[in-house]
Amino acid sequence: MSKYPIQVASKLSGVGVHTLRAWEKRYHAVEPVRNDSGRRLYSDDDVEKLRLLSDLCSLGNNIGAIASKQLSELNEMMEKLSGREVRVPSSDQNKVESSNGVIDIPESLKSLTLALEFYKLDVISHEVKKLILALSPKDFVYKIMIPLLQDVGFRVERKAFSIAQEHALSAILKFHIGHMIYQSYQQRKKKQSLIVITTPEGELHEFGILMASLLCCHFGVTFYYLGPNLPADALADAMKSLNADAAIIGTTVVTNNSIDLDVYIEQLMKKTPKQSQIWVGGLGHFSFENFASNKKFKYLPTIKHLEGLIQQLD
Ligand code: B12
Question: What is the pLDDT of residues 187-215, one digit of tens each?
């Protein structure tokens, strides 16, 4: 089991160092073990308890009343309360008010990367869930997903993070975003157009299309998330069955010999109904000039381009 010094426990739990000491002295909230030189060392459970105490206090609970509760009781209280959701836009672009208190976006990003550094996957999962509840789907895309994945990508390149850490973060993000996507299927849609979303066979990078799905949630578009790695024939069949107006195809890998995007797009152009549109997004490599004049085809290099197009849909 990991043991963290007070500064790290403070960052992981979001409770200031001074408050940590005060809660220990006054309420015996968490009493960490000490090392030979008398310094506090916090366990995973200590950090988890502190994080829950902090969240519950920002939801209006008094520390004196909850400090002695067990981890399981605090978890139960949190489960009950986190059903409530309030989204209040704030004048500060970096801060969002929610039922869990004010969310400071740069601080949240920092604590996510710090938690990943220490493999604190429970902290990451909790933070991502909180952010998804507090932010609009669009803000979650621009303020959290894009900067976070880029930062983690750079750290993996510099070998500051391992591939395992990158995979762990991807899995948690995918889980929570998936939850939101499937919940949104029950909501009434504002737009008539029907979109299917996928990546070409061989392209496993899924976050571009998850972001596209979140934008569809945000703007009330009916969409079918088909997951990544779909052969052209299967996509064409799905478009016919669903009578889809368009397919959003996400491409991330620029150089990958196993993906011939030109062939993929060509097949779709032939096999999909005349009125269906093919929208290719991301930086995947293909010959733009081969398709540029075709009315069925649109190229969307960034998420911003896609947002513009989604807003124009009927
Ligand atoms: C997470 C990740 C993975 C995960 C993906 C998990 C998942 N479920 O998606 C896993 C571990 C599977 C993976 C595998 C690989 N990966 Co990878 N991966 C990444 C990482 C860290 C993040 C990618 C990501 O999703 N970013 C978020 C996206 C959306 O941001 P973005 O790519 O910058 O895209 C912007 C635009 O291009 C555009 N956009 C992108 N997609 C879309 C889609 C639509 C519809 C629209 C409109 C716009 C759009 O919007 C974005 C924001 O502006 C990047 C590092 C990085 N710095 O990005 C590497 C990276 C993309 N991976 C890379 C590589 C090489 C690989 C592997 C080949 C590694 C290997 N040796 O196995 C495999 C390939 C697998 C495959 N066949 O597809 C390279 C690609 C290099 C290149 N020149 O193409 C990168 C850049 C890392 C690097 N620097 O080397 N990877």
Answer: 667 778 899 999 999 899 999 999 999 99
Q: Ligand 1 centre and the CA of 80: distance in Å?
A: 37
Same domain? For 173 and 233 the reply is: no
Ligand 1 atom closest to Cα of residue 259:
77
181 and 193 co-located in one domain: no
Q: Which is it for the CA torsion 266, 272, 273, 275, positive or negative?
A: negative
What CATH number does residue 255 fall under?
3.40.50.280
Is the CB of 149 within 6 Å of ligand 1?
A: yes
Q: How many domains does the chain have?
A: 3
Separation of CA 252 and ligand 1 centre (Å): 5
- Contact assessment for residue 195 and residue 216, using Cβ atoms and an 8 Å cutoff: yes
Q: Alpha-carbon distance 172 to 47, whole Å?
A: 19
Do residues 71 and 169 share a domain?
A: no
28-86 per-position pLDDT tens digit: 999 999 999 999 999 988 988 998 888 788 767 889 899 999 988 888 887 676 544 43
Range of the domain at 72: 1-81
pLDDT band at 258 (very low <50, low <70, confident <90, very high): low
Question: The CATH number of the domain where 72 resides is what?
Answer: 1.10.1660.10
Instruction: Give kind and range of the element (H or E) at residue 40.
Output: strand 40-41
pLDDT in tens, 207-247: 999 999 999 999 989 999 999 999 999 999 999 999 999 99
Q: Six-digit token pair at 72?
A: 């399981």
